[in-house]
Structures are given as structure tokens and as C-alpha cells.
Amino acid sequence: MIADVLSEASDRMQKAVEVAKDEFASVRTGRANPQLFQKIMVSYYGTPTPLAQLASLNNPEARTLVVTPYDKGAMKDIEQAIRDTPNLGANPTNDGNLIRVTLPELTEERRKEFVKIVKAKAEDGRVSVRNIRRKAKDDLEALKGEVGDDEVARGEKELEHITKSHVDQIDEALKRKEAELLEV
């Protein structure tokens, strides 16, 4: 039973780490990356639809991304959604068949803003992992009547170890993203 609680907590913590890493990928660095556009929602015939479902994204140059819509009728909506996306600063150009998005160079001030955003996303990830730990700890406490106190204490110790490893993964991803953002 204790192993089940720990296994479930570990799986949920791993998912929280993956979500944090995905959030980091959505913050732009100096390079154009198709992942930046994964979370962009386009109003497609009145329905919010992810950009990745409406167009293919290619990265021909370091700071340029080419968006090729599957439906040419959605070009204006896609262009508007990209233009309206906060923290992107992109200005898309439409040539009738595809949309070119050139990302401007990041200033030092803008890079520091992005580092703050990434740190906030990392803290959200850590909080998520800690909430999972709290629930697992409550589940372990509920098992005290069924299994011995020593086993519950051992389970809690293992839970702390699992939590620390997942928080460390988030911190490591944060360090990499921070270095990537501050690199000129």
C-alpha cells in the first residue's frame, strides 16, 4: 500500500516536472523555436484552436519561423493570434501562402524580464510538486492503522527523497533555461 502511494506520487510529480519544462519552452530565447507557438490559440470559425492543429511550423533560420496554414482561409486569424500573443514581440508577414514570423533581437532588459517569468514558472512547478507531496503524506498518515508506524515513517522518508529529486529536476531545467536566455 505504501509503495502504491509513493508510486502514484512519483508519477504525478514527474508530470508536474514535464509541465514545468513545457512552460519553460514556451518562453522565447534569442532563437525561433516552434515550441514557442504550441500554446497559441487561434479563433478558428469562433472556436479556440491550437495553432499546431491549423498549420505546420518550420524553422528555416535562427530567428525566423514559417507558418504554413492547412486552410488558407485561416491565415488572417493565425496572423492576428501571433500578433496578439504576449511576450513574443513578433510581427508576422503574410504573402498569401504562408506566414513568416521574424522574432526581434532580445535586449538585455527583455532577457531579464524573461528570466523573471521563467523563475515564476519554476516556482509554480515546485509548488505543484509540494502539493502532491502533501496529499501523499496525508494518504500515508491514513494508513497508520493498517501498517506499522515504522513503515509509514520509512514511506515518508522515501517521499521526501522523491520530492527532492523532482524539485532538483525543475531547478536544473531552470538553470539551463536561464543560461539560454542570458546567452547573447
Automatic annotation (TrEMBL):
Q: Does the keyword NAD apply?
A: no
Keywords, alphabetical: Cytoplasm, Protein biosynthesis
InterPro entries named among the record's database cross-references: Ribosome_recyc_fac, Ribosome_recyc_fac_dom, RRF_sf
Signal peptide (from-to): none
Q: Where in the cell is it found?
A: Cytoplasm
Q: Where is the Ribosome recycling factor domain?
A: 21-182
**What HAMAP family does UniProt report for this protein, alphabetically?**
RRF
Q: What does this protein do?
A: Responsible for the release of ribosomes from messenger RNA at the termination of protein biosynthesis. May increase the efficiency of translation by recycling ribosomes from one round of translation to another.
User: Belongs to which family?
Assistant: Belongs to the RRF family.
Kindly give the NCBIfam families that the UniProt entry links to this protein: frr (TIGR00496)
UniProt-recorded name of the protein: Ribosome-recycling factor
What organism does this protein naturally occur in?
Agromyces tropicus
Q: Report the gene name.
A: frr
